[in-house]
Structure formats: structure tokens, C-alpha cells
Amino acid sequence: MNPLDSSIDRDVQLALDEDIGPGDASAALIPEATRMRATLISRDAGVMAGRAWAERAFERCGLDAGDCRWEVEDGDALEAGRILARFDGPARALLTAERTALNFIQLLSGIATRTAAYVAAVDGTGTKILDTRKTLPGLRVAQKYAVRVGGGHNHRLGLYDLIMLKENHIAAAGGIAPAVAAARNRFPTLAVEVEVETLDELDQALQARADRIMLDNFSLEALAEGVARANGQAILEASGNVTLDTVRTIAETGVDEISVGELTKRITPLDLSLRFSD
């Protein structure tokens, strides 16, 4: 089982445990043998994401693969009114899985949709849109998957796969140069990124041979100057108060990447509806 499959299993099981508890009292009122047809519809335009999580929820609640026919894949553009899936299966299973399945699609599609808007805004500049660690506790893998579906790129997954030297790390280590040196000595296989707030700190990070440098809350003029000074010596990431209105002008300074916290922090879920029919 790959890590994404493992994450899907865990996410769905936790969500179902939270929702069902000792049992779905409402669904228990429906005769066990009852089967129903249902249609899952998106009421909003956006980018589809989260199908695997929804499929797992329906499966865990008793639907067979043949009970569901999906009409979209993750990454598909959705218009309002688009049918995502059709069901013909046990009514109890559909009712019990409904909220959990829809929650995952709504959340992840909202992230993919927002990410796609940022990616479109920087089209042609060569700048990548990155996510951050500002995720819902327990759902980081799912949210970062949705960012990729929307055309964005993942920054580090956690505190273990990239060394990120922020202001407090640097202060505790005694400066940028000793912080980078300690990182190289302790974790020689990990890339090192240094967060800087001034052009002088950028020069220090370049001299220390950091692999990546985050330019935090730089003005457009300072970003452009930073790109000129770095001259390809390190990957430059712009960060801080990035919006859809400003992301294009930031990208046009020549930075390699722009990290956007709101991709996974300020989420507008897609509006979905699952309706039974005769």
C-alpha cells in the first residue's frame, strides 16, 4: 500500500468513526433490504478532487463497486449542475456514508479550485505555486494532494523532509552561517532552506550556500533585487500576504516559487448535493 492509500484509509476511518459512533440511528429506520438510486451533483463550478476518499467512505459503509458509476475524475473542470456520480445501492449505506463522502469532496475540491486560480494567475511566468504546512490537523496529506490536483506544488510535507531555518532557529543557532553549517553536519542528505527578511540576510544565506531561500514579506523592488543578487545560486521562494490580486506581479519579479498559505487555510468548499430518486 502506498502512502496515499494509507492516508485515505486512515482519514476515512477517522471521519466515519467520528460520525457514526455506535451506529447510524437514522439509517437504521430504513429496512435493510431497501435499495435506492441517487445522484451526486456539484452546485458550484470548480475543480474535482477527493474521489478516492469518497469511494472509500461508500465502500466502508457497504456499497459494492458496481453500486456506483463515477462520471468525473480528479482534476476535471466542473460546471454548476454537473453530475459527479450515480448510485444504485443499499439505502442504509448511502445514507450513512453521504456526509463523510461529500465532506471530503467539498473540502478537497475547494482547495483544488483555489489552487487552480493561483496557477492560472501566474501562467507564463515560470513561477511555481507552493502550499505550506498551514493545514487542518490530520488532513495534511489529503490537502496537499488537492493542491497537486489544482496544478500547484507541495512544499515540505512536515518537519522531517526539508530543513527550514526560520527567524527563531537562526537566533538560537547564532546566525545564518552557523545554522546552515549545523544543518549540513547533522542532516547531510536534506535540502536546507533559509527564511530571510532583508537583502543583507539574503546575502548571508547565499554565502552560506543554502539550497533554497524564502524571501519573507519583501517588497516587489526587493524581490527583483534579490533575484538579481542570487543569479540562480539558490531557489528563491516569495512568501507573505500573497493574494490573487498580487500573485502575478510577485511572479513577474522572477522568483522561482511563491508559497500561498490560503490554499489550505482559507477554504471555500464546493457545494454538493446527493439526492435520492425513484
Description of the molecule:
- With 278 residues, the chain is of the alpha/beta class.
- The chain has two domains: 3-118 and 268-277, Quinolinate phosphoribosyl transferase, N-terminal domain (Aldehyde Oxidoreductase, domain 3, Alpha-Beta Complex); 119-265, TIM Barrel (Alpha-Beta Barrel).
- Helices cover 42% and strands 19% of the residues.
- The strands form three sheets. It has a six-stranded parallel beta sheet. A four-stranded antiparallel beta sheet has the order 3-5-1-12, covered by helices on one side. A two-stranded antiparallel sheet has the order 2-4.
- β10 (235-239), α9 (247-251) and β11 form a beta-alpha-beta unit.
- The longest helix has 31 residues, at 91-121.
- The relative contact order is 0.15.
- Keywords: Glycosyltransferase, Pyridine nucleotide biosynthesis, Transferase.
- Its EC number is 2.4.2.19.
- Hexamer formed by 3 homodimers.
- It comes from Wenzhouxiangella marina.
- Involved in the catabolism of quinolinic acid (QA).
